[in-house]
Structure formats: structure tokens, C-alpha cells
Amino acid sequence: MDDLQGRGKALETKFFGERDQVLLQNLKAELADKEAREALHAVSGIDNDEVLDKLIDAGVTPESLAAISLIPLVSVAWCDDLMEATEKEAILQAATSAGIEKDSAASKLLGSWLAHRPKPDLLESWKGYVGVLKGSLDETSYSQLKSSVINRAENVAEAAGGFFGAGTVSDKEKKAIADLAAAFH
């Protein structure tokens, strides 16, 4: 009987140990999803969990979403061949809220884009990425991503316009924003 009880106890321990492992793995996956959702929210400003989950399912990372959100801002700021101090500040604030740390590689790359106008192929690559995303996301998620990107681009354009950075957006900036919006169609 002792041998039978011993084997029964071992089997029970194994069963519950495996079940606990599955539960632990599920918990870890839940936490990872939550962290990924929070990171994407910080980068994009999107606060709809369903949209964020769809971005995650499509393989969008906070780093790639940061690029999606910052490349258009840099493009709008440089559209008139001049990076205004207020535009630079607006982009740096967007980068901070996107979770880009000051001394990170992404921050250094952004600094380079702010100091020197990037080549046009950077924006073309961004447009290609956005086009691929369209096939990976449903219409609502894609629309919210577009809205977030365009709103941030408009904020940069408005930062340089008018009196104390509040006012008119130049025709070149309006055209650059329209070009960004067109990339989402």
C-alpha cells in the first residue's frame, strides 16, 4: 500500500505541478500582453485595448510604432526646409511620451533626423510600412492609428505656426499632412 500511495502522491504532484506550470505560463502571457498594450498605448496615444491587441497580433512593437509615429512628425517639420525650435520641441515631447529614452539608439537617430533632414526614402519606407499594416489590421484599428499619427503631425505643424507657435499651419505643412493621410488609404 505504501508503494501505491507513494506513486499516487507522485502522480498527483506531477499533475498539479504541470497544471501550475500551465497556469504560470498563462499568467506570464497575460502580463506580457498587458505590458505590450501599455507600451503601445504610451507610444501611440491609442487607449482602446481592442485596437492595441490587434496591433500586437499584427506584430507591431512599441519600437516600430514609435517609428511610425515619429517619422511623419519629422517629415512635416522639415517640409519647409527648416526645423523650427518649436517643432523640434514638439517632436522631442512626442518621443518622450512614446517612451524613447534620452540616451537610447532611437533617441540618437531622432536627434540626427532633427539636426539634418532625412533622405526622402525614409518617408517612402514609412509609407510602405503603413501600407502593409493596412492588410494586418481591421478598419477601425487602422483608422485609429491613422488618427493618432495625423493628430501628432498636426501638433508639430501648429507648433511652428503663428504667434508663439499657436496659429496658422503653412500650405507646405498642410500638403505634407495630406500626403501622410493619403498613405493610409
Q: Give the topology string: H per helix, E per strand.
A: HHHHHHHH
What is Rg?
Answer: 23 Å
Low-confidence stretches: none
Q: Total number of β-strand segments?
A: 0
The structure class reads mainly alpha
Largest sheet: none
Percentage beta strand: under 5%
Domain count: 1
Total DSSP helices: 8
Question: What's the layout of helices and strands?
Answer:
Elements lengths: L1 H43 L4 H9 L4 H17 L6 H13 L7 H11 L4 H17 L2 H22 L10 H13 L2
Helix pairs in contact: 1-2, 1-3, 2-7, 3-4, 3-6, 3-7, 3-8, 4-7, 7-8
Explain what this protein looks like in three dimensions.
- The protein is an all-alpha fold and 185 residues long.
- Helix content is 78%, strand content 0%.
- Helix 2 packs across helix 7 and helix 7 (139-160) packs antiparallel against helix 8.
- The protein is elongated.
- The termini are far apart.
- The model has no long low-confidence stretch (mean pLDDT 80).
